[in-house]
Specification:
- With about 220 residues, the chain is an alpha+beta fold.
- It has one domain: NADH Oxidase (3-Layer(aba) Sandwich), CATH 3.40.109.10.
- It is about 30% helix and about 20% strand.
- The protein has five helices and eight strands.
- The strands form two sheets. The protein has a six-stranded antiparallel β-sheet, sandwiched between helices.
- Helix 2 packs across helix 4.
- It starts with a helix and ends with a strand.
- About 40% of the residues are buried.
């Protein structure tokens, strides 16, 4: 185990992570989500951005998970509610789900909080690749197509796909800056994943993305 993974594991154990059992609250996210990025430059992140498919089992400490979710799709202008990634006509039609060994959570960006949706481990449903079932975090980008910009179904799907791409690239850059492993994926069973996440009709999983410490 390298030093970064050791420190991440130690921090997680010291803070207890706040991970819930069936009767516990959702993990509490620290209120300063951008603090873990201090001192890291955009150039460094761009030079080291890559896809990785092997993950250590170490869970992400709360401050790293907090920064990850904020970088992906958090509110960066509280006065307007606008986000770290753009969306066509500011429709904000993408919901960010977080699947871990402890359950499924929905990221509430305005509150910068996680809302528990299920206590089940749904990671295997997020992808057909074996590593998806064991990566510490799987993000799932879900589009509410009725809210998406566009004058017809084809346009709305295209806009939702583009907006998802902006968010997933934010995750790539965050992971590159912190030397985390990540890969974006589109190979999953739509119906099975929708059931695992508890999605309503009209909500469509667009992409999933593994995140974790790189396997040594």
């Amino acid at each position: 185990m390298n030093r970064r993974i050791f420190l991440g594991a130690a921090g997680a154990m010291a803070l207890g992570l706040g991970w819930p059992g069936a009767a516990q609250a959702a993990p509490k996210l620290p209120a300063t989500p951008g603090s873990v990025l201090q001192g890291r430059t955009l150039e460094e992140a761009l030079r080291s951005r890559q896809s990785r498919r092997e993950y250590a089992p170490t869970p992400l400490p709360p401050e790293v998970l907090s920064g990850l979710l904020w970088a992906a799709w958090g509110v960066n202008r509280p006065d307007s509610g606008k986000r770290t990634a753009p969306s066509a006509r500011n429709r904000q039609e993408i919901s960010l789900y977080v699947a871990t060994a402890q359950g499924v959570f929905l990221y509430d960006a305005p509150a910068h909080a996680l809302v528990e949706k299920s206590a089940a481990d749904a990671r295997a449903a997020t992808g057909q690749q074996a590593y998806a079932a064991t990566a510490p975090v799987n993000l799932v980008y879900v589009a509410d197509l009725a809210r998406a910009a566009g004058d017809n179904d084809e346009d709305r799907l295209l806009m939702a796909a583009m907006d998802t791409g902006f968010i997933s690239q934010n995750v790539y850059l965050f992971c590159a800056a912190l030397n985390l492993a990540t890969v974006v994926r589109a190979s999953f069973d739509q119906a099975a994943l929708g059931k695992a996440l508890g999605l309503a009709p009209g909500q469509r999983p667009m992409l999933a993305q593994c995140v974790g410490y790189p396997k040594a």
